[in-house]
Amino acid sequence: MIFDTWLDMPVWGIFGALALLFAASAFLVHWLSFGQLTRPRASTFGGVVAPFFGSVAVLFALLTGFLANDVWDRNRQASRAILAERDGLLALHAISIATVSDMNDIRAAAQLYADALVNDEWPRMASQESSSKAGAALLDLLTRVSNPQVGAEAGQAAQTALLDTVLKLRSTRYDRLALSGDRTDRTKWAAVILLALVTQVAIGIVHLEKPRAQAAALSIFSVAVVISLGLIGIRERPFDGPLRFSPEPVREALHIMAGGTPP
Questions:
Q1: Least reliable range by pLDDT among 60-64, 93-97, 180-184, 255-259
Q2: What is the pTM of this model?
Q3: What span, in angstroms and rounded, lies between the C-alpha atoms of 39 and 150?
Q4: CA nearest 118: which of 242, 257, 261, 17?
Q5: Predicted confidence band at 83 (pLDDT cuts at 50, 70, 90)?
């Protein structure tokens, strides 16, 4: 729940929340190390060698890398799905024009489906929902293409090509909706955040003798964590995050199908 609220924030909110968290934790570590009330107790932990920090930092770096790989891979799949939908719509339009029979109804059904994607389903994906209007339009398109009369008038090869294209459109839509509802395992985000906090503690322990050195090390590490996790966080959700993918490729295909030129 906490991570969902955080990832729903705008870009500045995602970075700001991280900055606030790690600034507060860094201040707490520094205060526990050198505060008047806590210094006598903290000094008893002196003598921990610097390589100890590296062992914790490596664990944090590895898990952050796995998390980033999951997020980037989901974004790559989302981008490919959008472009595949655009190409499928354009291919359907081109095949219907190339046949000798009249396929105005199929082209109109394809335009209706593309319009439902852009104007109805895309806004709904911000809430991890699909569009019943788009689903009905796709079913209608599939029904029209599957009509035996199409094969009789245009030829079996043309109907097969049309049917394959529509089936690919349906498969691509399911992939896109699955990506829209997919979320990185929340335990992975929790582990990354906790390891970052533990790494701050490790930095504090290996710098118990020099306050300024500890403050500098904590500041540099905290800035690095905020930048890296912030960049991953803004890309966590490809269809409802602050940097969500635009339906522009599908809108471009709709414009061409309606008789216009690419914008």
A1: 180-184
A2: 0.83
A3: 84
A4: 257
A5: very high
Between 11 and 55, residue with greater pLDDT: 11
Q: Are 212 and 5 in contact (CB under 8 A)?
A: no
Give the span between the Cα atoms of 255 and 49, in whole angstroms: 65
Residue 262 predicted with pLDDT over 50:
no
Percent of the chain with pLDDT over 90: 56
